[in-house]
DNA sequence: CATGAATGAGGGTTCATTCAT
DNA sequence: AATGAATGAACCCTCATTCAT
């Protein structure tokens, strides 16, 4: 229990965490490649080098991995966006530039978007899953809504619709574009999203509060 | 094929066509409700009132029904856009109004959107299907791009991006929103789409070339 | 459709019935040997020479075969007993003799009794199964109750308890004895059952209705 | 194992015994409720508040718990009968009354009966278990046979069959009735058993040998 | 053309058991 | 002694598809 040998410590918990991590990784790869429905637990376990039982020792069901994956992804995305908008002193142009950089990364995220679509479809069809999914989704929607609101505030303008609705619309746009451009290169998604964002801002009235 | 008995002549071919049509209809309903992967051929045949064998007498595989649906999709979309496109001399406000009407129908067209998403998802995973799907999609994209271009031209403004790209983006937005709001009432999709469209117009520079 | 070739006719329905019959037979053998819980559908299908799918083409579930089996057995048993009691003119001694003969066959029926016990256990634990089981069981209980009533009537005596209850008690005795004597030879079950029946008759008061 | 610290001395052994006892108790509850086959070791361990490993530290297999339960069964039955047997000089009415009391407890003893049935069922399929079970059963049968013999002797009558066989038959009747009336209220088992007993006595000839 | 019984592969899930900790 | 992650086999069931009728 004290530390003397530097290697092979924490075996029990460590190896458990490792198994879990490997299963999650493998699941993500396969979900992205073959879709949620096209991926069997056998596939995941086999490719990760474990038995099917190992999967069930770590997750109650296929849905659970999916939710874990989703949560992680959405939180990461939220954090990423918050970082851009939270820095108070930024000039509008700077914010735009950073958003542009972020939007560019979306191009590499098309796989994730595909999964998101499959997830939504699954949620629309499985009531039990829908509840859990809704929680994750609402949290994400709220976070993004906050980011959108902050952006308009920073620009001294009134959003042309409820910020959360706008955020959801941007998610919809992003996912829809990902669906279209699977495999198409170069993917104009990131650029288009900013075009729409600029449009929204251009059409927004000046905020009544003097900046 | 030659005519001798005056009654019930086309019976065989007709009834075959009817079988086929019923199977296609049923398949679409089920694909929308349960997804492509969640729909079995037994489901389709049973609900349509036929045997599984009848299905295979009309289609080589589940994918083939999807192709037939794609064909229907294509025709429906073509007809829809023709209405907007055919009105050559329309004033900008009129075009805008027609787009608004079109956007409003989207609310009631969620089924078609879902079907479209299923089609795209499947195309992303089946190379043989992808080719055929791409052709339909490109045609539709082109047509819709024409409408967008015409709108901006009529307004005397320069589109902030390739009209076809903008058209595709609107399709993406529409589909993405439909996915989000399956079952949610009231569905803000139509309104949001117009908010985005207005934004785009607001951010468009005045066209330099009068033409 | 008319009969000319003596062999291989009725192929479709016949072969279907054959498959069903073979599966039922095999299921019975295995249920008796390994118990209901110890018999898998794989086992049944494999041993009958079919695929698992073939099983599901003929039965909705393992429970369904069980019920079919049970029904057939109970009906046969009821018919057997009715035959003994229905012949009006028999003298009491003759009835007894025939019952003795019948009881002797019970010895060879121990396997069936075992299954019956497992069935009851299963019914006590599966509400969905319980309903269907209850119907079969009640019918059998009613039939046997009728036989018991008739026997006492023929002897001009009043049964010491509700005939249906007595019938159920005899079923219980039979099953309980079968449970005990699995494998023990010679099995005294049949003889003991008659000993109890004679006791019941001996303790029964004379019926008030003069015969 | 040697004593030095006065407190918590037997702690280890004691706690092990406690673990074992708790597992046995839990197992019995679950066997009765869900059956032997319907109870998993995980169920037992979980519900008892231990790990699966703890189970295997105490028992080599699921069957071994069953053996332990059998031992308990044996002791309980032995004690039960001792009460009846020990009263040597009792009058027939008294014995009869005691049997009546015993029969009445059976109504509330359905759990034991179910357990007994599970034991017998398992014995019928596991040769290794059967041997041990047979010993317990034979002892019990002998003891109960003694009671039956004594009853008839006290009544000055000849039993209509080997007392041990009659005893076994009563056990069979009891178990069979318990199986039928699991959950059914009111349970006529106790009453029915006495009806049968009275019948047996009624049909018994007067003992020729005074002895 | 239409039937639907039968196939064979694969789906998600559970279980008794093992073993490094 | 006790843990519980991991195993591997088995379980019930569903599916797209075939083929004799």
UniProtKB/TrEMBL annotation, chains A, B, C, D:
Q: Name one Pfam family in it.
A: TetR_C_6
Question: PROSITE patterns under this entry?
Answer: HTH_TETR_2
Concerning InterPro entries, the annotation shows: BetI_C (IPR039538), Homeodomain-like_sf (IPR009057), HTH-type_TetR-like_transc_reg (IPR050109), HTH_TetR (IPR001647), Tet_transcr_reg_TetR-rel_C_sf (IPR036271)
DNA-binding region (UniProt annotation): 40-59
Lineage top rank: taxon: Bacteria
Instruction: Work out whether the entry's keyword set contains Transcription regulation.
Output: yes
Residue span(s) of domain HTH tetR-type: 17-77
Record's keyword terms, sorted: DNA-binding, Repressor, Transcription, Transcription regulation
Q: What is the name of this protein?
A: TetR/AcrR family transcriptional regulator
